[in-house]
DNA sequence: TCCTAGCCGTGGTCTGGCTCACATCATGGA
DNA sequence: TCCATGATGTGAGCCAGACCACGGCTAGGA
């Protein structure tokens, strides 16, 4: 059951079965329906979460109300660690994009687990380092790539994590509206829509509601960089 | 002497005097002159560095040769940890902006230090978390703010870390050319120059070579957000 | 069943910021 | 001292992409 998902999570990967089961037992459980908010930017809170099932978006809102998505996370991925190690309010709002369930762990419990388990600490460091590297890549993309390029890159990333190949291409049920996709790549909905329409007209992909089918991975990848 | 600088570094902050001295002894030392490169993006390498004296820029180059600066780091700040915990080639090129010296530590030595010293691991986690938070802020700025806003924000950050107040304002010897400042905020040199000229004409600051004097912190801060 | 609210597709306009093209100003080496 | 080289200021033109304004589509609730 859901233990399988958690075992893939970086937090657990270094643990043996027994330790993993024990850690799992000490974690809380939360379930939400699509569109519900787990916590808001600015909230205080010191829980770390792992997605067990479903998808969430991490977003921030600018002073004038516009929104920007930092990431879309799926099963096995962790979030909320920032307020753990860098004390302060939550830096993003987490909203579900599908029905979803989570396992959670408090700061104190995590610290107890870290003690005497250097491999777990090392796993967390890897995780944070990888996130930081990705964040730097996003910055580079915003500076160097145009909107269609960023859209292509986002689709490839989503395909990589949520895609399933079939005869007619890679089906990617990303569960995002074009509005959300636009917020993810830092562009307007209209521009993203035009980029998608252009890709579709070239036969690189087919558009479906909250989903795309990638038919020419090669060309799309080339457009991405 | 330089031990004072290192004691402020996050890597050391949790250590007592004796441990700090021992760690310092196990670290290598490097000195470079302005404009020299410590390592290139894509190099292999597993050393972590701490700036002892001087400043460096972390930059990446796009496929078509344009450059983007991720950060300017000064005394006490750490870099190169990414390739440690997230194995892979160096993700950025590090170049000195002034004459500079560094203390370095290899992956293996660091891991030995982490073992049995959970506080050090925790310090590193804090450091990475803080960097990640900053990277996310940069992303938000690129999406939400215009170039003058980003320039203002960059100046405030530099002032915060390298500024010295005097009667006529905060003197910020950032040691960056306008070209480098432009790469830091993800804009063209010309646009940055015009933004700076505009700030100066409003009396918010005075321009000097590789340096600015901030005269109206209040207005500049307001322009930044 | 209809109606409403949210998505999605697509044109037209306007502008921030990039590129190009110079002129000027330092600064250090011969 | 004089020149070369890089840094700095500034204007002109152009264009990607934001913003605006629709019309059509679809799904879920009354």
UniProtKB/TrEMBL annotation, chains A, B:
<keyword id="KW-0678">Repressor</keyword>
<dbReference type="GO" id="GO:0005829">
    <property type="term" value="C:cytosol"/>
</dbReference>
<dbReference type="InterPro" id="IPR018490">
    <property type="entry name" value="cNMP-bd_dom_sf"/>
</dbReference>
<keyword id="KW-0805">Transcription regulation</keyword>
<dbReference type="InterPro" id="IPR000595">
    <property type="entry name" value="cNMP-bd_dom"/>
</dbReference>
<dbReference type="InterPro" id="IPR018488">
    <property type="entry name" value="cNMP-bd_CS"/>
</dbReference>
<dbReference type="GO" id="GO:0045892">
    <property type="term" value="P:negative regulation of DNA-templated transcription"/>
</dbReference>
<dbReference type="GO" id="GO:0030552">
    <property type="term" value="F:cAMP binding"/>
</dbReference>
<keyword id="KW-0116">cAMP-binding</keyword>
<dbReference type="GO" id="GO:0045893">
    <property type="term" value="P:positive regulation of DNA-templated transcription"/>
</dbReference>
<feature type="domain" description="HTH crp-type">
    <location>
        <begin position="145"/>
        <end position="218"/>
    </location>
</feature>
<keyword id="KW-0010">Activator</keyword>
<dbReference type="InterPro" id="IPR012318">
    <property type="entry name" value="HTH_CRP"/>
</dbReference>
<dbReference type="GO" id="GO:0003700">
    <property type="term" value="F:DNA-binding transcription factor activity"/>
</dbReference>
<dbReference type="GO" id="GO:0003677">
    <property type="term" value="F:DNA binding"/>
</dbReference>
<dbReference type="InterPro" id="IPR036388">
    <property type="entry name" value="WH-like_DNA-bd_sf"/>
</dbReference>
<keyword id="KW-0804">Transcription</keyword>
<keyword id="KW-0114">cAMP</keyword>
<dbReference type="InterPro" id="IPR014710">
    <property type="entry name" value="RmlC-like_jellyroll"/>
</dbReference>
<protein>
    <recommendedName>
        <fullName>CRP-like cAMP-activated global transcriptional regulator</fullName>
    </recommendedName>
</protein>
<keyword id="KW-0238">DNA-binding</keyword>
<dbReference type="InterPro" id="IPR050397">
    <property type="entry name" value="Env_Response_Regulators"/>
</dbReference>
<dbReference type="InterPro" id="IPR036390">
    <property type="entry name" value="WH_DNA-bd_sf"/>
</dbReference>
<dbReference type="Pfam" id="PF00027">
    <property type="entry name" value="cNMP_binding"/>
</dbReference>
<keyword id="KW-0547">Nucleotide-binding</keyword>
<dbReference type="Pfam" id="PF13545">
    <property type="entry name" value="HTH_Crp_2"/>
</dbReference>
<feature type="domain" description="Cyclic nucleotide-binding">
    <location>
        <begin position="11"/>
        <end position="131"/>
    </location>
</feature>
